[in-house]
Write a structure and sequence with these properties.
Layout (H helix, E strand, L loop, with lengths): L7 H80 L8 H58 L2 H23 L3
Helix pairs in contact: 1-2, 1-3, 2-3
C-alpha cells in the first residue's frame, strides 16, 4: 500500500499544462519572429537605399573630378598659348582677355574640386549609414534564427537569447535611422 498511483485526471492535467506551456512559448516565438522580420525588412531596405545614395554621390564626385581635370587642362593650354604669343616677335596684341579667361578657368576648376570633395563626403556619410543598417540587418536575422531554434527545440532560454540579439538589432536600426553613433 505504500505506492500511490496517479489518477487519470491528474495525468491529463499535467499534459494540458505542458501543452499550454508549449503553445504559449510557440505564440511568443511566432510574434517575436514576426516583429523581428518586419524590423529586418525595414533595415535591409534602408541599407539598400543608403548604398544606392552612396554610389550616386560617388558618381557625382567622379564627374566633378573629371570637370575639374578638364578645366585645369584648358587653363594650362590657354596659359601656354599666351606665353608663346608673348615670346613671339610681334607679341600678344591684347593679353588681358586671355588672362581673364585663364583666371576664370582656374576658378571653375577649383569650384569643381570643391564639389568633388563635397560629393565624396556625402558618399562617405551614406556608406557609413549603410554600414549601420547592415549591422542591424545581420543582428535581426541572427535573432530570427535563434527564435526558430527556440521553437524547434522548445527552449525558453533560446527565445530569450533571440530576444536579446533582436533588441541589439533594433538599437542598431534606431542608430541607423537617427545616426546617433
Amino acid at each position: 500500500m505504500g505506492r500511490e498511483t496517479l489518477e487519470p485526471q491528474e495525468l491529463v492535467e499535467r499534459e494540458d499544462f505542458e501543452r499550454s506551456h508549449r503553445r504559449a512559448l510557440s505564440t511568443r516565438v511566432a510574434v517575436t519572429a514576426a516583429l523581428l522580420a518586419v524590423l529586418a525588412s525595414i533595415s535591409a531596405l534602408e541599407a539598400e537605399h543608403s548604398a544606392a545614395e552612396a554610389i550616386l554621390a560617388k558618381n557625382d564626385a567622379v564627374l566633378s573630378q573629371s570637370r575639374a581635370s578638364d578645366e585645369w587642362a584648358y587653363r594650362q593650354a590657354k596659359s601656354i598659348k599666351l606665353h608663346l604669343q608673348e615670346l613671339s616677335p610681334g607679341g600678344a596684341t591684347d593679353p588681358e582677355p586671355q588672362r581673364a579667361e585663364i583666371a576664370a578657368s582656374e576658378s571653375r576648376a577649383r569650384a569643381d574640386e570643391e564639389e568633388r570633395d563635397r560629393a565624396n563626403r556625402e558618399a562617405a556619410e551614406h556608406f557609413a549609414r549603410h554600414h549601420r543598417f547592415a549591422v542591424a540587418t545581420s543582428l535581426l536575422q541572427i535573432a530570427i534564427v535563434l527564435e526558430t531554434v527556440a521553437a524547434v527545440l522548445d527552449r525558453t532560454i533560446v527565445w530569450w537569447g533571440g530576444l536579446a540579439v533582436g533588441a541589439a538589432g533594433a538599437v542598431a536600426l534606431a542608430n541607423g535611422l537617427l545616426g546617433l553613433l
